[in-house]
Amino acid sequence: MSETVTAKAAKAAHYSFFEGVERNFDKAATHTRFEKGILEQIKACNSVLRMKFPVRIGDKIEVVEAYRVQHSHHKLPCKGGIRYSMDVNQDEVMALAALMTYKCAIVNVPFGGAKGGIRINPKNYTPFELEKITRRYASELVKKNFIGPGIDVPAPDYGTGAREMSWIADTYASLRPGEIDALGCVTGKPVSQGGVRGRTEATGLGVFYGVRELCNTADDMKKLGLPTGVEGKKVIVQGLGNVGYHAAKFFYEAGSLIVGLAEYEGGIYNENGLDLEAVVAHRKATGSILNFPGATNINNSLETLEQPCDILIPAALENVINASNADRIQARIIGEGANGPLTPEADEILLAKGVIIVPDMYLNAGGVTVSYFEWLKNLSHVRFGRMDKRFSENQNNAILNSVEALTGKKVTDIERRQLLHGPDEVDLVYSGLEDTMIGSYHEIREAMLKHNMTDMRTAAFIVAIDKVGVAYEELGIFP
Known about the structure:
CATH superfamily of the domain at 202-363: NAD(P)-binding Rossmann-like Domain
Helix content: 40-55%
Distance between the termini: 53 Å
Strand order of the largest sheet: 9-8-7-6-10-11-12
Structural class: alpha/beta
CATH class of the domain at 202-363: Alpha Beta
Shape: globular
CATH architecture of the domain at 202-363: 3-Layer(aba) Sandwich
Radius of gyration: 23 Å
Number of helices: 17
Number of strands: 12
């Protein structure tokens, strides 16, 4: 018995995220028509750049370890975020790059998958030191031809944001003088630096749209014994970072009950619902979500995920739901806001319990979808809505005036503003994201029905493999 426990512990300690992705790929590949060679090409990481470079930090020179992985070149440019974390390693970056390939295919964004990472704790550096590290990393990518609007387009990820992306864009432009599309070398930039409105909340909003579409599908809710819609459903969110906060915000605004929140310091739970903004204000004031009035403290953050709810949104790090705790999860729906929050073993346990798992490679694709919109904006050099906003408002005004003249009735001032409103950039971004998430959900659902399966992750992989495989066949690179 002790040897079995030891073996399991060793296996868990050496869990490979990339192998987990490959395992899911192989499971789905048996349902596709492609020969082994094409499947091996789709699965393989095409280019892996591992680098070490010196940066002066204070009075010392520090050697920084960093990565950039381009998983697939079936479409260019490659696309994927850059994370700053002490947990960054080659296996993780390869796995995330692979997921980006499949993610882009699922939501019909014409990119190959990529990912980057720098092995640092950003909290240990001043903004000036972070800028030096970021700019040096960007210059290394330029030297190796691993960045460019038609080559590889990074974006924010864990530990990075708009500030770091603006540093990368500026570094690239300085090393490529005269390149008219230089701003398209990276997305997630500040709006003033070529970013797009709506990018900050895009991933969390995409999580909401995806789960909402599941909840609006009567046949799927019937299987779970739940009513349609998200209103009134109890939701637990792990992580109050950019993704988790915005996902919770949109669920809250749609009438869901946020009954649990988990952060690294612990979790809180109230079956009657939590006021999200009050919790955020409490955390800013005290440094912790714990001891929020009316909520029960949960000192072990992971135990928050095991509390009663309808929908669970793990939006923090990988592997938080695994073989050791999956059987204690009470949620009927799990929406993967983070990358890889469930291990393959957890999938098997939860699927056997009848839980619907909405996979990361679809559900958190809101970020890359809106990044695609930003990239298009940078290449077109025009803000979305600039050409047609006034035209739409003038046309709406003419129609409304005609209707009022014909009926002899007047609308209220509030109704008039709503009816006349022409689309701003953020309206178009939200609309494009909503359409993407709804359409992609039903593509995955059709694959599930076609193959008579309940595993949405495998169905999502099937959809992705089919699209990437067709792209490789059409490229004609298999003589």
